[in-house]
Design a protein that fits this description.
The protein is an all-alpha fold. It has 2 helices and no strands. It has one domain.
Length: about 160
């Protein structure tokens, strides 16, 4: 093999071509590739962060929703219990009031019955005296000791 000037010129021109290509083509191309890779990495990180934030927001929303549902159920249960207590209290109060009214009415009726019985005894006594006077032809007076007889007549 011979090494002459053509070989040397070819080698130098290849080295110059490689340096020029490196400066003009490969370095800018490498820089663009690095910038794109950096952009992709940043975008991926932003997407992951956004996804994590979205998951956190969804979890927080679900937690709040579950808490709200639990609070609503508790509130409804409390109101139902309160209504039941009010119902029981009012029912008990109404029963007590009706028992008092019944007792009062019984007492009133008993008092009236006693009054009418006394009036009836007096009228029966007067009527018995009138009938006895007409049958016997003389005035007959029935005394209060004959209440047993009057009670037998009334019953």
């Amino acid at each position: 093999m011979e090494f002459n000037a053509t070989f040397l010129v070819s080698a130098v021109s290849f080295i110059i071509f490689t340096v020029i290509m490196n400066i003009i083509f490969y370095k800018p191309l490498g820089r663009v590739i690095c910038e794109r890779q950096k952009y992709l990495d940043e975008t991926k990180n932003d997407a992951l962060n956004s996804s994590n934030k979205a998951d956190a927001i969804l979890k927080d929303r679900d937690d709040r929703l579950n808490k709200s549902v639990a609070d609503a159920k508790k509130l409804v249960a409390d109101k139902v219990n309160e209504a039941n207590e009010n119902s029981r209290a009012k029912t008990s109060e109404a029963k007590q009031k009706s028992m008092e009214e019944i007792t009062s009415a019984k007492s009133s009726l008993q008092t009236e019955a006693n009054q009418y019985t006394e009036e009836l005894k007096t009228k029966v006594k007067d009527l018995a005296e009138v009938i006895s006077s007409k049958v016997l032809g003389m005035d007959v007076k029935i005394e209060n000791t004959d209440n047993e007889l009057i009670n037998r007549i009334l019953n």
